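Worked Example 4.2. Consider the chain below.
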Amino acid sequence: MSNPPLFDPRTVPVAGRDAHLPVVPLAALQASALRRRFAEPPDWSPELRTEPSFSSRAPSPASVLVPLVMRETLTVLLTHRTSHLSSHSGQVAFPGGKVDPEDTDAVATALREAQEEIGLESRHVEVLGTMPTYTTGSAFVVTPVVALVNEAMVIEANPHEVAQVFEVPLPFLMNPANHRRHQVPWEGRVREWLSMPYHDGQMEHFIWGATAGMLRNLYRFLQAH
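Applying the procedure from the previous section yields the following structure tokens:
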């Protein structure tokens, strides 16, 4: 989600938290359990699909990789985008981008972009499956591709696109007590979105907007019965 003019998400008050929702059990966040869940998905519906549009251009297909690093506790690998990019600049994001003509499908796009942005080689990636598309306010129709990533991966961030690479424990993101709701008046209506700020002991990573929305859908997918 790109920021409309004069919109700073960090300054918007918290309207509520979702601590009343159930936590995804730790047993469901193991690699073997995730493989089973994607092999036999439940009957479920994503909570968030489309953001209010602030772009006049035609929708563009895109894809992101949701990399789950196979450490003792699985982590989600995320990036801080550089501040000079034309879209989503400075924000926390998954590796990903627009579909290229040579890409055969959403998975190919996600793997190519992860290679280009953070040097992640596909031999370290085990694709589990895709999530329903998420349309951003900037008119990207994004397919999240969820994958397990070998912890032996070597990361080399492309300095043109990525300012920083970091990891967040998957249990933290799958605990809705860490999901905050925000509301702000914008162009005559109330705009609502989620944030999942994570402090790694040195700095706060402000996860919000489209990235938080796709993580929320992953929570709904893993929590569904």
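The first strand starts at residue 14 and ends at 17. The CA atoms of residues 101 and 109 lie 10 Å apart. Compare this with Example 4.1 before moving on.
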